[in-house]
Design goal:
Blueprint: H1 32-61, H2 65-73, H3 83-90, H4 94-103, H5 109-119, H6 128-137, H7 145-155, H8 157-170, H9 173-183, H10 211-218, H11 221-237, H12 241-247, H13 263-274, H14 279-288
Length: about 300
């Protein structure tokens, strides 16, 4: 996907600054009719697939209501949108962008926009931050990738990581937590030319990596250092339960990974996690330190009202 620069002059836009579903006006601008038609076609298929999934799980509903509810909440089908919508997005006019930007805060239409963006060869600059804001606001730590990955391909991992880190630095606790969750999908992974036994990833050496992937990772070394320090600083200083739960799986607790100024924070972070009243945080510390190996699922976040 060809890259277009994401406008760095803009400040992080929080979802509460944008009108939600109740304010969505389907006749707000010329040219909206096409998007409305494409959305209705998509919505029909989306609703039918959700109903199919509900029917499939209905026999379990009485016995496992909480589990079934969670499975249904986390089920958001993905479809191939009409090629005309993808083509229009790639040549988006002001009216097209108005429809798309008002759709992203909408709990249903946002999945349509994500599917169109995923299949586009490139994305207009104006959609960069609103897509990332949708990822930040999405509570499911797997589904948020549907907004992050198109942006990473279109605008590059540096732009995406810088925006999400800025939200982690300056947002409220809800948005900080969403940014940490979204950052998981903004990583640059190193691909290796050889395989290694399970659990022995640390034995792989730089010379074992495909050099293109290694170079892409190293080109962002400044960001990885900033992220590592910010995660540690935030875990120690911010007592938000959801935020700490989302930080600790990615928290580097190796003293050697930090300058002298941050080494005392590593000790404090371990202390906080070891004595934390939350079972998940204590468990993930054990995993981080190699004292446990079976992973418990991350507790679901609840939306702030």
């Amino acid at each position: 996907m060809a890259a277009r620069a994401c406008d760095q002059r803009r400040q992080p836009v929080m979802r509460d600054q944008v009108n939600g579903q109740s304010d969505f006006d389907e006749t707000h601008s010329q040219g909206a009719n096409d998007w409305d038609d494409w959305w209705r076609e998509y919505e029909t298929r989306f609703a039918a697939e959700e109903q199919r999934r509900l029917d499939e799980l209905r026999p379990l509903l009485d016995r496992f209501p909480a589990q079934v509810h969670l499975m249904l909440t986390s089920f958001k089908p993905s479809f191939e949108p009409t090629p005309a919508a993808v083509e229009r997005l790639q040549q988006a006019s002001r009216n097209d962008l108005e429809w798309l930007l008002r759709a992203l805060p909408d709990e249903q239409r946002k999945w349509f926009v994500a599917d169109v963006a995923r299949r586009a060869e490139f994305l207009p600059n104006e959609i960069c931050e609103p897509m990332l804001d949708a990822a930040i606001d999405e509570l499911d730590p797997s589904l948020n990738r549907r907004f992050v990955e198109p942006c990473t391909r279109a605008f590059g991992p540096r732009r995406v990581n810088e925006y999400l880190l800025a939200v982690l630095e300056s947002g409220d606790d809800h948005h900080k937590t969403g940014a940490v969750s979204a950052l998981y999908w903004a990583r640059v992974l190193i691909s290796y030319a050889v395989s290694s036994p399970a659990g022995s990833r640390g034995q792989l050496k730089p010379e074992d990596a495909y050099q293109e992937s290694l170079a892409a990772y190293l080109a962002l070394s400044d960001l990885w250092e900033r992220k590592r320090k910010l995660f540690l600083e935030t875990f120690v200083s911010n007592e938000s339960l959801d935020l700490r739960r989302n930080l600790i799986p990615s928290l580097n607790l190796d003293l050697g990974a930090y300058p002298d100024s941050h080494k005392p924070l590593v000790v404090r972070a371990i202390n906080i996690a070891r004595n934390h009243p939350d079972d998940y945080i204590r468990h993930r510390l054990q995993v981080q330190l190699g004292e446990a190996h079976l992973l418990k699922p991350l507790p679901r976040r609840e939306r702030n009202h």
